[in-house]
Amino acid sequence: MFGPLTSKPGSSQANKTGSWRMGKKPKFLQKNCIACKMCILVCPENCVLGGEKNTYHCDYVYCKGCGLCAEICPKADIMMIEEGEQ
């Protein structure tokens, strides 16, 4: 009988994955946020930070630009923008 295969956790904090972002990045509008934390739950890099209503933002050092946070936001308070935009 085999159990689940697991490996030692990687050093994701040392791997700054934002350097190869896909050309877009999330912009947290901080207007209609209801603090549901869905963006935090769905982020594969755990780079969405914050904790109170309208205070969420992204750590672009680790963000890959996948857009999952913007896709899942029930209030459309996160939009994907081009890399050079603010």
Task: Describe the 3D structure.
The chain is of the alpha+beta class. The protein has a domain at 24-82: 2-Layer Sandwich (Alpha-Beta Plaits). It is 12% helix and 16% strand. The strands form 2 sheets. A two-stranded antiparallel sheet has the order 1-4. A two-stranded antiparallel sheet has the order 2-3. A hairpin with a 7-residue loop joins strand 2 and strand 3 (57-58). The longest helix is centred in the middle third of the chain and has 5 residues, at 38-42. The mean pLDDT is 85.
Briefly summarize what is shown.
The protein has 86 residues and is of the alpha+beta class.
Give the topology.
Layout: E1 24-28, H1 38-42, E2 48-49, E3 57-58, H2 68-72, E4 78-82
Antiparallel strand pairs: 1-4, 2-3
Question: What labels describe this entry?
Answer:
single chain; 86 residues; alpha+beta; Alpha-Beta Plaits; two-stranded antiparallel ribbon; two-stranded antiparallel sheet
CATH topology of one domain: Alpha-Beta Plaits
Put simply, the count of helices is 2
- The CATH C-level name of one domain is Alpha Beta
Helices and strands: which structural class?
Answer: alpha+beta
Whole-number mean pLDDT = 85
Shape-level CATH architecture of one domain: 2-Layer Sandwich
Largest sheet: 2 strands, antiparallel
Distance between the termini: 54 Å
How many E-type strands?
A: 4
Unreliable stretches covering 5 or more consecutive residues: none
Order of helix and strand elements from N to C terminus: EHEEHE
- Determine the strand fraction and express it as a percent band: 15-25%
Strand order of the largest sheet: 1-4
Helical content band? 10-25%
Radius of gyration: 15 Å
> What gross morphology would you assign?
globular
